[in-house]
Specification:
The protein has 17 helices and 21 strands. By secondary structure, it is α+β, with helices and mostly antiparallel strands. The strands form 4 sheets. The chain has an 8-stranded antiparallel beta sheet. An 8-stranded mixed beta sheet has the order 16-17-15-14-18-19-21-20, sandwiched between helices. The relative contact order is 0.09.
């Protein structure tokens, strides 16, 4: 009898909704929206599926309000933002959805302690993820006709606009095309930025079960799909928490492209405070001892050997970039990952490794130049995993074991991660463990395949194999034991075939296959990518980590091949200045950036010292993509 009642109650919840929301979708159908193009419906469903995969409901609750700003107020018919506030419903049970409100005040009035309150004459836009089996026939027909992308295993978004009447009855209407444009931009942006939220453990009340976050504001560029390209190619979307958060409240001014420049005849000799022995002049590339090196007195970002080089650089380049570099320097605090308690500055790599007790040990040998005489991939290997991690204590590195009791909707599926804090918690690693510095490479690859790329995620969910072309490996050739962690994160769903291609692959290893785990295998190929690609299995995704696009002439042929193949390709760079240079390279190759530059949640927490720049630099610091 108990089992029967449990089953009956479960079916009731599915059909009539549960939790704090307003119930299941109303049956509105996007095909009935005036002026909408079928391809735009496909783009909306694709964007909603991408957001669903990042699982914001894991951490977000109805009490978390976010401010939204899409473009300028003048871009909208009402001359103001249509829905400037959003909340996520379903994280603590019930219908999975998110609600967009006309104001933060409306959102607060409708948010009760356990349920959504109907407030007369308040209008909100809802996006509810419903099982296909419970959807109205019109929506099921639309899904089949347009081959719309599924969210998760069996859910699709239903979008409507609800108004609470004075009688307590809910009335629904179809969203307008303009409102759907707003939803599309928000969903694309939120997929990128919500993993960057940092938990505020000190500011949260001890008795509260609700996760508190540090004040947050981030602006990303979202590309409009081609079917609405007349509204310009890109739109800036700003998301903040709490809604009223501004750049100034984060301890810095909003970034600007240009700052007020100093008079050309006035240059300030600012000595550089660092323990590194040698730096390199950004103008003439002359090496100079740190005691003699100095930087621009306005932005503090670039290094010179003398005032002559500084004046010449100002006239040729720096005058137009100084303000941008200053804004980048002011963003340094935002890039610091503050959860770790081991030293996170490696200005002198050998001393840093010695402080951790791993200098010249295991995989850490590639983190300094002491073994630079040994070709990549050929470091002598002594023993097992303990030796690979440099003899760290048993609880300080990930063991070769699966993640237990990690199911989604009762089935095994890839584990979706939002950042280092969550990963360390799942692995029960102490925050004094430095393994994030090496794991940044495999976990960045995993993050791309499961959070940023749609097709690879779907293949893995279906238990199929994803083929990844990994361009330009160097130190990674000696870090293959760390890539075995991807197998455990797949959690029994799918396989990944990594083909590492580059000139640094040793001749005697080229053509070999390494089955580093049950679900991940690696092929090594020596050569230039554009010359070897025709002999390789066709990829689903291409990646290049810390690629330095602006400093390697050989990228030209590879980018041309990537452009012609239309395969999604993701690149990481170490600093914002490298990302700016990468954009120039992409434009020169005729490639359009479709995944905007965003901080990588799995960047290394260890700050590196650049030779000619003081800008924040982290391994795999930023991600950008093309053909996505």
């Amino acid at each position: 009898m108990d089992l029967h009642l449990k089953s009956l109650f479960g079916r009731f919840q599915e059909q009539f909704g549960s939790g704090p929301g307003l119930g299941p979708g109303s049956g509105t159908c996007l095909m009935k929206v005036e002026g909408i193009a079928p391809n735009f419906i496909k783009s909306i469903y694709k964007a909603c599926a991408a957001l669903y995969r990042t699982d914001p409901w894991r951490r977000l609750r109805p009490a978390h309000f976010f401010g939204i700003r899409v473009g300028k107020d003048s871009d909208w018919s009402s001359k103001k933002q249509p829905f400037p506030c959003v909340q996520f419903i379903g994280g603590d049970g019930g219908d999975v959805s998110f609600y967009l409100f006309r104001s933060e005040n409306d959102a607060r009035k409708m948010t009760g302690s356990r349920e959504t309150i109907c407030v007369p004459n308040v209008e909100l836009l809802r996006v509810t993820y419903e099982p296909e089996s419970l959807m109205f026939p019109s929506n099921r027909k639309m899904i089949k006709t347009l081959s719309l992308e599924v969210s998760g295993t069996d859910r699709f978004p239903v979008i409507d606009v609800a108004r609470c009447m004075s009688s307590g009855v809910l009335r629904f209407r179809h969203p307008t095309l303009e409102e759907l444009r707003f939803v599309y931009a928000f969903v694309k942006a939120m997929s990128l930025v919500h993993p960057l939220l940092q938990e505020d453990k000190e500011g949260a009340p001890k008795w509260s079960k609700l996760m508190y976050f540090e004040p947050f504001i981030e602006t990303v560029d979202v590309q409009w799909p081609p079917e609405i390209g007349k509204f310009h190619d890109l739109v800036a979307v700003t998301i903040s928490h709490p809604p009223g958060q501004s750049y100034g409240e984060k301890g810095r001014s909003a970034p600007t492209k240009y700052a007020e420049r100093p008079r050309e005849e006035t240059f300030v000799d600012v000595r550089i405070n660092t323990n590194s022995n040698l730096r390199k002049c950004i103008m003439c590339e002359k090496e100079v001892h740190v005691e003699q090196a100095f930087s621009c007195g306005q932005c503090l970002a670039v290094v010179y050997c003398d005032s002559h080089c500084q004046k010449q650089h100002w006239k040729e380049t720096h005058k137009s970039m100084c303000g941008l570099y200053k804004a980048m320097m002011e963003r340094e605090e935002e890039l610091v990952i503050k959860i770790f308690v081991f030293p996170c500055s490696a200005e002198q790599p050998c001393k840093w490794l010695e402080s951790l007790g791993v200098h010249q040990k295991g995989m850490w040998r590639r983190k300094c130049n002491c073994y630079s005489h040994c070709p990549f991939g050929l470091l002598p290997v002594k023993g097992g995993l303990w030796d690979s991690w440099g003899g760290l204590d048993d609880n300080e590195y990930p063991r070769d074991s699966p993640f237990h009791n990690h199911l989604r909707d009762g089935i095994s599926s890839p584990i979706l991660l939002s950042g280092w804090s969550e990963y360390y918690s799942l692995r029960s690693l102490p925050l004094s463990s430095p393994v994030a510095d090496i794991l940044s490479h495999p976990l960045t690859v995993y993050y791309i395949l499961t959070a940023l790329n749609i097709s690879s995620k779907n293949l893995l969910l279906k238990g199929k194999e994803v083929i990844l072309h990994y361009l330009g490996p160097e130190g990674e050739l000696d870090w293959l034991p760390a890539f075995a962690e991807i197998s455990h994160l797949l959690n029994g769903s799918g396989n990944i075939h990594i083909v590492m291609v580059g000139p640094e692959v040793p001749t005697n290893l080229s053509g070999t296959t390494s089955g580093i785990s049950s679900r991940v295998r690696v092929n090594l190929v020596r050569g230039i990518y554009q010359e070897e690609a025709t002999y390789l299995p066709s990829p689903h995704v291409i990646v290049a980590l810390n690629c330095g696009l602006d400093s390697h002439m050989s990228w030209g042929g590879a980018l041309e091949l990537i452009k012609s193949s239309s395969v999604p390709a993701f690149f990481t760079e170490q600093s914002e200045i490298s990302c700016g240079n990468a954009k120039q390279v992409f434009r020169g190759a005729g490639l359009h950036i479709t995944h905007p530059v965003t901080p990588n949640p799995f960047r290394s927490p260890v700050k590196m010292q650049g030779t000619s720049s003081n800008l924040p630099s982290y391994s795999n610091g930023f991600i950008l993509g093309v053909n996505t």
